[in-house]
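Researcher: I'm comparing several assemblies side by side, and this is the next one on my list. It has 914 residues spread over two chains. Same procedure as the others: predict the full complex and return the structure.
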Amino acid sequence: MPVQPANPEPAPDFDSMLSRKFGKEVANYFSGSPLNRVGFLRSDHKFLSAALRHPSTQFLLCRDLQPLVDPSNGTKLCWVKYEDVKPVVGEDPYATTEEEMLGLYDSGRYVPQMVFLGIDEKVKEGLEYQGKNKYRGAPYFAIDVTPKSGVKEACEKLIAELEGKGIGFAKGRVMEIEALDDLTISPSSRARTSKTSQPELTTPQAAIYAEARQLLDWNARNPYCAQCGQPTLSVNGGFKRTCPPKDLARAASKTSSGLGNAILTPGAADNTATADESERPPCATRKGVSNLSFPRTDPTVIMAVVNHAGDRLLLGRQKRWPPYWYSTLAGFAEPAESIEEAVRREVYEEAGVHVGRVVIHSTQPWPYPANLMIGAVGQAIPSGETIDLGNDPELDNAKWFEFGEVREALKHGTSGLGDPPGEGYIEGGLRLPPPTAIANQLMTSVVNGFVSGTPNL
Amino acid sequence: MPVQPANPEPAPDFDSMLSRKFGKEVANYFSGSPLNRVGFLRSDHKFLSAALRHPSTQFLLCRDLQPLVDPSNGTKLCWVKYEDVKPVVGEDPYATTEEEMLGLYDSGRYVPQMVFLGIDEKVKEGLEYQGKNKYRGAPYFAIDVTPKSGVKEACEKLIAELEGKGIGFAKGRVMEIEALDDLTISPSSRARTSKTSQPELTTPQAAIYAEARQLLDWNARNPYCAQCGQPTLSVNGGFKRTCPPKDLARAASKTSSGLGNAILTPGAADNTATADESERPPCATRKGVSNLSFPRTDPTVIMAVVNHAGDRLLLGRQKRWPPYWYSTLAGFAEPAESIEEAVRREVYEEAGVHVGRVVIHSTQPWPYPANLMIGAVGQAIPSGETIDLGNDPELDNAKWFEFGEVREALKHGTSGLGDPPGEGYIEGGLRLPPPTAIANQLMTSVVNGFVSGTPNL
């Protein structure tokens, strides 16, 4: 009997009372992954071991967080196979259980970072795996092949082989170019790309890369335990770091005379005399659950603020942006505030405007390095519309724009930051970010009746 | 001329087109702080120094993250004055600039954690301060007075003095008890409180404590740099940790013979020979901006899921909960997914149900330790309503409940987890969390017409 996909395509467009009342869900760029992450299988090394070595498995290689792309193919992500990565990661890095791995931890041994991204259940010849339920699909992994330490040679050899086929690592950020899906790659951006290797990704590819990038980056930024200062180990398919109770490198160091490579950490004295030389000082993260063990995502707010009359939009600009370029205000949410409060605070700090009601519109993952952009629409209170840049002088300018001017700019004035404006743009007119940016989606919703309820195109 | 409050009370209830279209904003417990955080002044030590020592300034003391409360006063937060905390924090800890502090950094010297929380602009006799704009209000600080290291004696003395007045530190969590504001403290919860010192806080007090707790906890969990393993320094009024380039404790250790208190960190060899013995190995967080320097907030999703017909609600229960107790499903957002995707993934993982359209309802800060709860309403697709607990077996059970049953439980079956159900509850009926929980607010909205648009009370 064929296995049913456990996770059919998410169906935000499916007709429902919610979508009839609130409209179609806005799916922002970097969301929309085709993979079922099956996160509950990440600690199951029997599964990971089978997934790593299955013929259907796809590997995304990254060097210094940049993905492997094929410039001959619209700079799409380029996938490699188990046979390609075996010299880097070894025959079966998941041969031992997670518990056994902990016991064998040696901080002196460099292990290339691997991340299990999920399975594509649309692939019928994928791995079939029986957990509590049955799953089937093509597994996806990301691997850091930056040449270093013990895998330097293996990585260099693999990269040279790929380069021999005309395949290399992307340069620049996804998304600093034109809005993209399979159908809208413009000839001009294609030409630019083939020169610069700047990746142009369809929505599903961008979402997979976002997951890979954010996890590889988080692991790279957190080799040490922030609680106790000791090196940590990546577990759970790359989605967790743990502070092991033992470290074979300690025993090795203690028996040798060399203490020259010790870093002084005067705050954490290690006075415990233990029978096992590899044992490390206690760490609070080993007791109970610590959020330090899990990847970090920083919530940010980005908001289209309308005036009380509901016919103008508050936009701001930074000094480094091209002339006439504006966008919605944005900033990091602070600890212990709601998103609604964060929106009011940021708008007050940056523009002096006081916002009343805030409605959350949609969200966007943003993997540079680890943001979650929470898009909102807010409305100013009548006595609070005066702009004042004097609190937190982050902006070069902020201004109220009539909806008509914004509507015109959304038609002819959008582009990536470094790119020329769209066709029909008249010099001196307002310029705005492209549709891949949630800022653009917020503005589009607002000028099309999000606030008043009357469609207003 | 009197200074106008820079940040008048946020006015989510102010009549606006947005509130007429989407209804009144739901303000969840732990949000609604009365303070203007004036975060842009946190690096200004002239301001912090004046704020710390002003007669209007209020200090919230915490020991092991628990706030000082006055059991004789409904277990409200208890505030102390500069003269009280001076023996702990010193005459003027902000006398030097942030840059000078960096140069004098000594990881061997314990400094009690202070957090600048903001100013209450309603206080007319508050500190007046001229930045780029003029600000006036009573400053608020939180201070960790857990007796330890160099301030052990001073903290113990202060605590003993307070205890002599019948004032002490709270026990247990805010919010595990009955929903509270100034008007709804029930005699029974009052009685319980005076016995257990479990804090009962009004909304503004809870919001101030949430800010204090989350920041003190973050600083306590992050004494070491996750990038390089070296100890870090709290700056920016407690809202940032930095990895200083020098550490006077290094020089002291190097000139002494004692290397016994060194922790072995084999991955980060320090082979640089420098003229200045206090200089530390390079760290990537010192170049550019690193999110590791800033407090961490973990986005979570919590969702009321309705069936396709729009008349039932999906609720789940954990094993450790009392009988008949259910709530909405919830879980951590993962890296590089939108909130809408996180909602769909969590509901699939925990209950096997497939959700289409997701609408974000409201958000709630949750300082245990650092969550941002993003509340959403989702609607199942017609073919995806079958419950299956077999993917991620986190729940004891999940069930579809008719709106009528939920409505009844919201009237008579809500309480804190450890407390008896409300008046009129009949044994065997559904039990639900109290109105201070966002889960309750989501269910209330849904049974009152959030999905269909027809009020349905």
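Model: For your comparison table: Confidence is low (pLDDT under 50) at residues 1-10, 176-196, 257-273 of chain B.
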